[in-house]
Amino acid sequence: MREFKSISGLYDGNLALSIAPALTPKGIEENPLFFHGEIVNSAIIAGGLLVLADIVSTRYFQYVPAAQKDPVLSAQGDRLRAECFSACNGVYARLDIFQSALDGEILYGTTNVDIGVKLRQALCKIKQEDKLKFLIGDEGWKSLHSKKLSDGTLLTDILIERPVQMPDRWIRALGNCAVLHQKMKYKFHLEGMPAKAFIAGLPPVTGKEQSGWLCPTKTGAILKLREEKDSVYISGLHRLSGLKRLMSHANRINFYAPEGAAHGQMMIEVCMRGASITLSLTAKSYEGYSGEGALLEALSDLETLECADRIDNELNFEPRIELEKISASLGVDKNNIHDAMELLAVSGKLGFDVHENAFFHRELPDDPDRVLNDNPRLVAAKKLMEDTVFVEDSLWYVKSGETNYRVIYPEGSGVENAKCTCTWYLKHRNSRGPCKHILAVKLRKGV
């Protein structure tokens, strides 16, 4: 996406995270500064950054270490958010650092942040009693040495400089996550020692895949073969292994799952002092978020496209977006606002915080062709529109090649209730977005 001009480093108690040119309320800034101050909870923040670094360089399905990618960082006035995906795209991770963990002013903007191998090695040495100054901006440190401070702590300065590029599929996956996360509902939580014990008992990242229902007990949570009240299904328990770095800091763990879905995605949120880390897992360990197709219905609605354009002009890096305020400001119905918000996620502009039940704004470089490039089913559906014919009641014929596919699209209903005779629908139903034939009918109905 963008190259780093300097380095990330840890130097005499100064943790400097190097960032690329950023998108801010003032536009693109070549030398941005998002935060300059002190970290109150050094070990927690260091551990959280290490968890992100572990996840982004791991392929959990058929475990293979992967090349390092760099998290997306959003500064939102009252918090910093760093987001990334695993190398297999099956795990989404977000570290939230709240104002209470930082002594200094948090500004606004979005960029990608450099967390390389040498910085990871230095972060591993940070202890709870260490005091760190924290800089997020385009200033790095240029020496390599260790120094013992007057209070006996040892901190290391390192040199990191390398170009990075955010994968295009991350943007597509960020959009799909924003839609899928809205379906997540709180199931149960663990506090204190049971929370720490759960993390301690997680299998290693290289361990055999374990799947089943995480069920709450009086002393924690255990994996069972059958569903119980408030239980959460997880595919690949080893995909949570990165949380072990934060075991001693965990105060509470919240578990989420899609409402009414037996084997859907799941989410876990680890709450700490001044920070939290959220992991969201796909329904199956071999699936990636970039292929879910959750935004296809919104992308096929012209009215929603126009509304999304108007909302985009109102966004200003808010950590929590209130739909009522936007609806009143634009004079648009709240239901239309919500559909448009989902659509904005396809460009990576919005995330969804399940804990706060609200969208938040991030800004990534916009590519007008990305929507079509990332959604080939939508492109195919537009080509099939001319060969889509209404027959009777809710029945449509869609000709693709030499075959006429039968689509049942109930009047007054959405794509989730539509049916098709094609192999995609027979295999996935509508769990990974509608097939191109159902989309063609929706587009035809809207003409």
Instruction: Tell me how many strands there are.
Output: 28
- Strand proportion, as a percent range, falls in 25-35%
Unreliable residue stretches: 1-7, 139-147, 156-164
- What is the spatial order of strands in the main beta sheet? 12-8-9-10-22-21-20-16
The helix-and-strand class reads alpha+beta
Major sheet characteristics: 8 strands, antiparallel
The coarse silhouette is globular
| Cα gyration radius (Å) | 23 Å
Give me the number of helical elements: 12
Summed over residues and divided by their number, the pLDDT gives a mean of: 80
Measured between the Cα atoms of the first and last residue, the distance is 37 Å
Query: What proportion of the residues is helical, as a percent range?
Result: 10-25%
Short key terms for the protein model shown above:
447 residues, 12 helices, 28 strands, globular, disordered N terminus
How would you characterize this protein structure?
- Helix content is 24%, strand content 31%.
- It is an alpha+beta fold and 447 residues long.
- A hairpin with a 2-residue loop joins β26 and β27 (403-408).
- α6 crosses α8.
- Mean pLDDT is 80; it is low at 1-7, 139-147 and 156-164.
